Amino acid sequence: MRNPFQSIRWRLQAWHGLFLLVVIAGFCYMAYQLAWNNQSRRIARNVFEAERHLFHPLFEAARPEGADEDAPVSSSMLLERLRAHQIELPPETLLRFESTESGFAYFVLYDTDGSVLMQSPNLPPDMAPLPNDGDDYDEDMRTIDNRREMARYNAKGVSSIVGRDITPEKDDLHRLGLSLAASGLGVWIVGLLGGWWLAGRALKPIHTISQTATRIAEGNLTERIDTAGNNELHQLARVLNDTFEQLHAAFERQRRFTADASHELRTPVTILLAETERILKRERKAAEYQEALTTCRESATRMRNLIQALLLLSRQESAPPQRESCDLAKVVGEAVAQLEPLAREREVHLQTDLPHLACQADPAALSILASNLVANGIQYNRPGGSVAVSLQQRNGSAVLTVQDDGPGIPQEDLPHIFDRFYRADKARTGTSGHTGLGLAIVKTIVENHQGTLAAESPDGAGARFVVSLPVEPTPQEPV
Ligand code: ADP
User: Fold this and answer.
1) How confident is the model at residue 428 (pLDDT cuts 50, 70, 90)?
2) How far is the CA of 405 from the centre of ligand 1 (A)?
3) What span, in angstroms and rounded, lies between the C-alpha atoms of 50 and 43?
């Protein structure tokens, strides 16, 4: 059984799903990262603001009493006063660092020995150590658990940590992450469904083509694929339809040929059987036996001619011509010479005009072609008539013309004379040698050589057959 996951639709869906997943995940990650960066910047601003709100009143409070308002306060002064516990923060500042509600700000001030000088009441218990890389001063903006803090180490002054709780921002980001994941998943599912539908729609014509082709393969040769439309699949459907058309025509030709061949063979076989049965019914005289055997021989000869012609036709149709350099004049001349006894018997005069003409062709096939045309010219002629055979080179083609001055071919028969088993003179059916295949063989040979063939018969002025074969350059006669 066919694995459904091997179908094009499933494969398309898998690739589409994977691609979509990567794009959506990338997009969500970027959105999350942007939001986190924004929050980080805002939190850092809050921390710096909290530092300002702490240090400004601290330095103000460290100013010695009576000193000028603009006089600078040094870090060591602040340290001394803090050590002496002489500094109190104003209540509005203390208020900022009191809350323990989410988002609260806290601080701690350290002495140079690491002891706590001052701390906010809400200071978390698990404070991380100050950054210290060996220099006198070091600072670090860091995130510890749910807290973001600015830690400043001062080897000779006040060290500080000012930070704030970032639980609300983390919750916000967590919610954003969840909603991004949910909406991303939603978009992915909608994308998958859309892709599945689109793939199905795009592949439907292929499904239709395959179903129609299966019905045709099952024997319904007249059926065709619907080609309404102009996309690539419709073009493919048209090509397939043309192929089916040719196949159908080939099957039809085959069927007709088999039927015609059987029909043609049935007559001589029937004669043979009837004659032998009649003669065997009782004892006969020698003359009667002789007469019956002559009839049988005629029927057998007819069958042999027919079988030979069928074999010849089938060989010409199945095998490509064995091309070789040959002189057309020689090939045609020899075929005409072989028919001279027949011409003498029929009292038909043969005329030839055969100049040397070299070409690449199958000499055996061309000999059969010339022989069939000239034999017809003799056989369908009247005593005293003539057949003219000529060769010419015209526009890169070798033109063979066989013209007789017999009674000619009726106009209504002209389009059919190249069909198999077609005989213009139905009365001749059965006469020895006339198989109705001669011109069909000529036509096949001409087509095999990519040539053209025409038959003309002006009223009462005999028949004229013109065969035109492309002359290919030969080693002896370069162009
Ligand atoms: P056949 O074996 O009957 O000669 P062909 O295929 O050679 O079969 O010819 C088909 C028919 O074409 C012939 O039966 C005949 O009626 C007609 N035909 C062919 N050549 C000539 C010709 N030169 N003159 C008159 N009729 C011809």
Assistant:
1) low
2) 14
3) 10
